[in-house]
Design brief:
The complex is a heterodimer of chains A (374) and B (364). Chain A is mainly beta and 374 residues long. Chain A folds into three domains: 136 residues, Hypothetical Protein Tm1070, Chain: A (Sandwich), CATH 2.60.290.11; 108 residues, Hypothetical Protein Tm1070, Chain: A, CATH 2.60.290; 97 residues, Cupredoxins -  blue copper proteins (Immunoglobulin-like), CATH 2.60.40.420. Helices cover 7% and strands 49% of the residues of chain A. In chain B, the strands form six sheets. In chain B, strands 1, 2, 3, 4, 5, 6, 7 and 8 form an eight-stranded antiparallel sheet that branches. Chain B has a five-stranded antiparallel sheet with strand order 12-11-14-9-17. A four-stranded antiparallel sheet of chain B has the order 13-10-15-16. The chains are: A mainly beta (374), B mainly beta (364). The interface between A and B is large, with 55 and 58 residues.
Chain lengths: 374, 364
């Protein structure tokens, strides 16, 4: 018995000592002037705490927004004892992936590597930015809470990164902190080693008019631990702060959904109503197209429509039309179709305009329209 | 045996459930317009993750900069399940301590509380600020490293908070490109802290321009853990980021090497003795010690220093006058042979022999 205990202790100790560690920067970007409303860059520092041993590090760029390379770029380098290595504008300079955003995973043997970064903008004033720490796997959670969230004088973007080798579905629930009122829900599918950022989360759940400095969001996955964050941005200066997700408790089961989340991409296509009309909506640089034609489509009140959405090139973003029950979706490059069901009512008659909400290049922001007619 | 195991497990679970937790926001302030170069404020949010139970929280303001109250102000409040409580300009509105700065400790039973904050300025542009998290006790370290430090277009302030009930001495060492730029030692009282503004100026390196420096924060007592942070501020916008201290390793004690110096040799070093061989990554303490036999004419020698290694020099290595370099850590990029020569032309009473008194340090 004693031998077995000693063996187990030695095994646990050795496996912990020898195991590689991955430190994740959940948000990095390189958006030069002209590629987005505001230019953004990430300066990264990687440090070796050891006084005696060099350490080999492999950095892999997990791009999921903008113009992503077809394969994940990576760089390998060695850090001397106590060396701090600077990677200014890392996404461009180290990974040659301008006009894109994503996460970086730094993998090394042992636990001696520390990573820090600053993500900053050079406009409208040079410079304003936020500290983004390198996160350990224990900083990823199946349920996380993001506090200090604001809207009105500020805006809030919520980001998620799935560092697992299998896809997952995450649900974001937005609350007003003063009364714990549920403002809305977003459901997003995340591929393996991929992520997304939902810009202007209050707009995305149809609460853009809410003014608050004390909201919070809960991010729940279907069991996978995710890195989560909120970027809370002063609208006057574009100065952001980075709020990392803190471990939260899983809520009791119950019907809390107010918005209509669409099924994730990984699930089978839902069975439409018998009379449903199938519509394709594709995005490509830089236009929307319904059924391979123009960027406007007319729906009839009472008719059910099955809208199949996908990207034809780089990653684009469907911002959602909450008034029609359509959720925001990232249309990932090369990903399967995302299907949403729409059945317009008389109260929804009119034009519903949407625009790409994920930076996709110089023509980003292109718009489309769903018109609802009697 | 099984009963004892169950009892131990029960006690472990119960103690974790019942134990109090303290979250520390290491930097809060309320500096209104006119009381400082720039006004700064802290908006704090405290959240209860429980869906079922309210939680009582006691917030204590540990003021250590500016106009501090005589007694640490505190506020107690109860958070309903899933409540997020807002404390805007907390130092003024909750603690009535304007024109001051410090830390806030939020203590509660259990571990359901989360705290976040934004420390921001309203001038020169409204607003720019930084996220300051509520830190768990495990995020305090006896030795921590602060990376992403900058000077020139930026400035860097380094802060330390001692959340222990006894005082501690803390040493801040500033590095850039592998070279140690300076050291600053501060004594911190119990439940107190400090912020060293413009750490590069304090280290006598105010004119240095860098965006890749780092600092080590070490306590004198290896058992005492402190919270550390760096505020790195863009000088043109005053926009700060808060870099939290990450756990670091304590530097190994320097390896002592004595170089015996006599006419006309450094041992080790040369020319008669083998070179002084040092390993990159190892920290050394070098002592140049005179061993001229009695009766030697002009028993005085000099070490010129080696600039590419950052080693200083000294012109008086004579009986009773050792020259000590207390700490030198060669870096990998310094690998190679670095020659040097005695600086005292009259050493040993023979200038010609002196000219041959050349040695070398080999970094491998």
């Amino acid at each position: 018995m004693k031998k077995l205990t000693l063996f187990l202790c030695a095994f646990v100790f050795l496996s912990a000592f020898l195991a590689g560690e991955t430190v994740t920067l959940p948000a990095v970007t390189s958006l030069p002037v002209g590629a987005a409303a505001s230019p953004f860059f990430s300066d990264v520092r990687v440090f070796n705490t050891s006084y005696t041993s060099s350490v080999s590090v492999t950095a892999v760029y997990r791009c999921f927004l903008g113009t992503c390379p077809s394969a994940a770029p990576q760089v390998a380098f060695a850090l001397a004892p106590r060396e701090s290595r600077a990677f200014d504008d890392m996404v461009f300079a180290a990974f040659n992936a301008p006009s894109s955003a994503g996460a970086v995973e730094f993998t090394s043997s042992g636990t001696s590597v520390r990573v820090t970064s600053r993500l900053y903008s050079t406009a409208p004033i040079p410079t304003v930015g936020m500290f983004i720490p390198g996160l350990r796997s224990s900083d990823a959670h199946t349920t996380a809470v993001l506090t200090s969230i604001a809207n009105g004088a500020f805006r809030t973007n919520i980001g998620l990164y799935n560092g697992n080798d299998v896809g997952t579905v995450a649900t974001i629930k937005l609350f007003n902190g003063s009364g714990s009122a549920l403002l809305g829900v977003q459901t997003v599918p995340l591929g393996p080693r991929s992520g997304t950022q939902i810009n202007r989360i209050f707009d995305a759940v149809g609460q853009g008019a809410v003014s608050t400095t004390n909201a919070y969001a809960v991010v729940e996955s279907d069991g996978a631990a995710l890195f989560t964050y909120a970027a809370v941005i002063d609208n006057a200066t574009t100065d952001p702060i980075f709020v990392p997700g803190a471990e939260d408790q899983r809520g009791p089961a119950g019907p809390v959904v107010t918005a209509t989340p669409a099924p994730p991409a990984a699930t089978p296509t839902p069975t439409p109503a018998p009379s449903a009309i199938t519509v394709t909506l594709t995005a490509q640089q830089f236009r929307w197209s319904f059924n391979g034609g123009g960027n406007t489509f007319t729906m009839q009140v009472g008719q059910t429509y099955e809208v199949h959405m996908r990207s034809l090139d780089v990653t684009h973003g469907f911002p959602g039309l909450p008034e029609l029950g359509m959720a925001q979706r990232a249309l990932l490059s090369g990903a399967a179709e995302i299907v949403q069901i729409v059945q317009p009512t008389a109260a929804q008659v009119g034009n519903h305009v949407f625009a790409c909400d994920i930076e996709c290049g110089v023509g980003h922001g292109f718009a489309g329209t769903i018109s609802v007619a009697q | 045996m099984r009963r004892a195991l169950f009892l131990a497990l029960f006690l472990l679970t119960a103690s974790r459930t019942l134990s109090a937790e303290t979250l520390t926001i290491p930097a809060v302030t309320s500096l209104p317009t006119g009381s400082a170069a720039s006004p700064f404020f802290s908006d704090v949010r405290v959240f209860n993750t429980s869906y079922a139970a309210a939680v009582s929280v006691t917030a204590v303001y540990r003021c250590f900069l500016g106009t501090c109250p005589a007694v640490a102000p505190q506020a107690s409040f109860t958070l309903a399940p899933r409540e997020s409580r807002a404390f805007d300009d907390m130092v003024l509105a909750t603690f009535n301590a304007p024109s001051s700065a410090g830390a806030v400790e939020l203590s509660s039973s259990g571990s359901s509380v989360r705290a976040t904050s934004r420390l921001y300025s309203t001038s020169p542009v409204p607003t720019v600020g930084m996220f300051v998290p509520g830190l768990k006790a495990s995020e305090a370290h006896p030795v921590s490293v602060l990376t992403s430090l900058a000077n020139g277009a930026f400035r860097t302030n380094v802060g330390v908070y001692n959340g222990n009930d006894s005082g501690v001495t803390v040493t801040i060492k500033l590095f850039d490109g592998g070279a140690q730029l300076g050291t600053h030692t501060v004594s911190l009282g119990p439940r107190s802290g400090t912020q060293v503004n413009r750490i590069f100026d304090v280290a006598g390196q105010g004119s240095r321009t860098t965006t890749n420096a780092y600092a080590i924060v070490e306590t004198g007592d290896p058992a005492a853990a402190v919270f550390s942070y760096a505020a790195v501020i863009d000088n043109s916008t005053t926009d700060p980021i808060l870099v939290t201290g990450a756990e670091d390793q304590r530097a190994p004690a320097p390896l002592s090497i004595t170089v015996n110096v006599r006419a006309w040799d450094f041992s080790p070093g040369g020319p008669n003795s083998p070179p002084l061989v040092l390993n990159a990554g190892t920290t050394y303490s070098l002592t140049f010690h005179n061993v001229d036999p009695s009766g030697t004419t002009n028993p005085r020698h000099g070490f010129p220093g080696i600039s590419e290694l950052g080693l200083p020099g000294n012109d008086d290595i004579s009986p009773g006058h050792d020259f000590v370099i207390p700490s030198f850590t060669p870096e990998a990029f310094q690998r190679g042979t670095h020659p040097f020569a005695c600086t005292r032309e009259d050493c040993g009473g023979d200038p010609e022999q002196h000219r041959g008194m050349m040695g070398a340090i080999v970094i491998q």
